[in-house]
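Checklist before submission:
- one chain only
- standard amino acids only
- sequence pasted in full

Submission:
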Amino acid sequence: MLTISVGQALLLGLFSYFSNGGLVYFGYVGALIMQKPIVAALICGIIMGDPTTAILIGCTIQAVYIGAANVAGVTSLPAINMSVWFAIPVAMTIGGDVTVAAQAALTICLACGPVETALRQLMNVVRAAILHVMDAAVHRGDLSKAKLIAYGGSQGLAFLQFALPVPILCLLGQEAVVSVVNMLPDWLLGCLGSFTKLLPLLGFMILLAGLLKNNAQWILFVFGFALVKAAGLSVLTVTIIALAVAYVIFLCSGKEEEPSATGKNEEPAQAAPAAADGAGTQLAGLKTDKRFIRRIYIRLMFHLNQLFTMERMQGPTMELMAISAAKDLYPNEPEKQKDLVERHMVFFNTQPTLGSVIWGITLGMEIEKARTGEVPNDMIQTIKTALAGPFAGFGDTIWQILFVPILLSITLGLSSTGSVFGPIFCILVYVTLNLILTYILFGSGVRLGAESASKLINSSMKDRLLTAIETLGIVVVGATVGNLVNLQAAISFNFGGTVIDLQADVLNAIYPGLLTLIGTFITYYFVKVKKISANLIMLGMFVIGAIGYFTGLIAP
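Returned file contents:
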């Protein structure tokens, strides 16, 4: 039987730390993609020496959590950023049926979620205290120490929160979980099996609640579902078809904005003429200096969400970027360097990927202020704040609600047999697109300023793009539900010696996957229309799963 060694437990704790704000936080990668259950499962599987089993377990957890924290206004499931890193390896030690191991891992995550959420809130309080210590160092003009405090405090807390508990829970939990599973009666395992089959519908419907804008879009969902269930196509094939449909909708949904009255596109506002002195000329060149932009960009990617608190959110990130640029903007002027950083010791928050243009715009305005002294601080703060909201809404919709769940849906389809290609594909696509987008947008923000960002937010291109991506997302979610959720009845009738199977002879004859489709509509009704909390829906699903198991309506 597979066991977790001390070395493996320490590695699991280390990668848990990396995925939750640790040193590989670069480019928002650790914050969003490494902590996803399907990606964590690949790393857990490599460490444990059995990637296939780990990925199959990860698929079960990911299906439930695919839309967990993406849709505003819908109660999400508890956090499992740490739990998944010991739930998967501990479940792997059970041995035998992978389905039982997946049920155990999901149960561990759901049970530990509330405790992890409470621990996260406690750490937020501690981070807020460390943030004020950092601010004090800035006020004294000790910018190097301020940066050290930010990184030391943020990384130290992340290490305490993730790297230490995970090895302990891995080593202590494996025997306990194996013993408990072996003690469970068959009927309870059957009830859990039916419950586990129902549970992914909750995650998908939380996601779908943010995608569907009207009931007519259900046609797209059923279309994707039918292509998998009735036509037998793979999720990847359906995704390609959906891309073609989305592109046609994009082309047909409208035309780009008309040119300006002059018949030409207006050029961005030009910066004021450079000062005659050498310092002014050097500062003017920073906005087009690729080496300078690349250096600040790389540092910004490491700064992202360091000392993130509810009080200032990404304010410390902006503060750290100002520290990184201070000596370039005000060489040999420590007082002005301090003033620069103090200007950004305020609340700020936006979506980090598409909102990276705001970091660039802010840096560009600070360069102009240092060069000419004519850019008032109020103007910088006003533009920064005014752009944060629209880019947060636009970025969350495009990136959090549409792109990431679509990518995860495709990944689940590729990983349904335990293939390592699925998680690897997910990592490569996410990291590549994220870094390309953030680098281009940040550099554009530095060079072109606020006017270009305003045009992007207000252009008709945004609405057309949203419509096309929503179409793609709904079709892919329908295909993924059809591929991963398989509710089947286990009832048969005997009429005069003729055995009629309810699932094979009746339900499948009406429509393949009919029971899954009915469960989808019912779950969506409670999530979107009745707005029932996720915890209550899970409780109801367990009851229905138990009834389904004993009556044969839902096979385990």
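Reviewer check: Confidence is low (pLDDT under 50) at residues 70-75, 256-276.
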